[in-house]
C-alpha cells in the first residue's frame, strides 16, 4: 500500500470519527465529561472557520494536522469503546453534519481576541 493510500485511509477515519463524536455528544448513554470533549472536538472539526486561518503560512494548517487529530484521539478514549464502535458504524451511514455550534464558537473566539487586542493597545489617558 502506498503512502498516499495510507493518508487517504487516515483522513477517512478522521472524518468518520468526527461524525461519530458528534453522535456521541448527543447520546444519553455517554458520560458527561466524554460528551463535553466529544461535542467540543466535533464542533471545532465541523466548523467552517478555523482557530488559525489556513492562509497563515505553516501554522495555518497546524490545527488541521495536529490539534484536530489529537482532540479526536482524546475524545475517542473518553467514550466507552462499545458505544464508540456503534457511533462509528452509524457515522459511516450518515452525511457529515454542518457545525453551526463550531461556527458560533469560532466567531466568538475571534471577537474576544479582537476586543482583547483593542483593550491592550488602545491609548490610555494618563
TrEMBL record:
InterPro entries from the UniProt entry: DUF1232
Keyword entries, A-Z: Membrane, Transmembrane, Transmembrane helix
Annotated localization: Endomembrane system
Domain DUF1232 stretches: 34-70
Signal peptide coordinates: none
GO CC terms in record: endomembrane system
Membrane-crossing segments per the record: 101-122
Transmembrane listed as a keyword: yes
Membrane topology: Multi-pass membrane protein
Protein name as catalogued: DUF1232 domain-containing protein
